[in-house]
Design brief:
Distance between the termini: 54 Å
Radius of gyration: 15 Å
Helix content: 55-70%
Oligomer: single chain
């Protein structure tokens, strides 16, 4: 019987790329409402776990762009 293999965890930079893309270009519904706030909340949570300072800075700058 084959053991269940845990999926690999994304690196800080991979997560930054994913979140930055979705913050900059969030999905919209038919009325034009987007879910950018959701991605900003998730990005803010993720920042607490980052060890890569460059990825952290990129994501912080992206969040700042839409929250200030």
């Amino acid at each position: 019987m084959e053991k269940f293999k845990q999926p690999e965890k994304a690196t800080d930079l991979e997560l930054t790329i994913f979140l930055t893309k979705h913050i900059n270009e969030p999905c919209k519904d038919l009325q034009g409402h987007n879910i950018r706030d959701f991605y900003i909340r998730e990005a803010t949570k993720a920042l607490e776990t980052f060890k890569d300072s460059e990825a952290k800075q990129i994501l912080e700058n992206t969040i700042k762009k839409y929250t200030e």
